[in-house]
Write a structure and sequence with these properties.
globular; 4 helices; 3 strands; three-stranded mixed sheet; alpha+beta; CAT-like_dom_sf
Length: about 100
């Protein structure tokens, strides 16, 4: 019985980086335009909360198995609190604007 129970147990790691000031850090190349997790990491069952760049919201980095992510992404209660933004496009446009303004 213990063996079966152990198979059902999962560990979920949750971290908050809300007050770390990640967008204020400057390592000599200017402040970051976007902070993210390493996409090549081997994390699983992991959630990290960070402030948005403008400080007006919270980003949730959620790493789950494919099956769990499918359920998570379709949860109606979650979707009632979440909003999706086209962050990649806006960051690319901003980056291009910065390069052009330096010319």
């Amino acid at each position: 019985m213990k063996e079966k129970q152990r198979d059902l147990e999962e560990i979920m790691v949750m971290r908050s980086a809300l007050d770390f000031g990640l967008y204020e850090i400057d390592f000599g190349r200017g402040k970051p335009i976007w902070v993210s997790l390493d996409s090549g990491s081997s994390l699983s069952n992991f959630i990290m909360l960070t402030r948005t760049r403008d400080g007006d919201g919270v980003e949730a980095w959620v790493i789950l198995s494919e099956e769990d992510m499918t359920v998570f992404e379709l949860d109606p209660e979650l979707l009632s609190f979440a909003s999706l933004s086209n962050l990649c496009v806006s960051l690319l446009l901003e980056s291009r604007h910065r390069r052009l303004s330096k010319l």
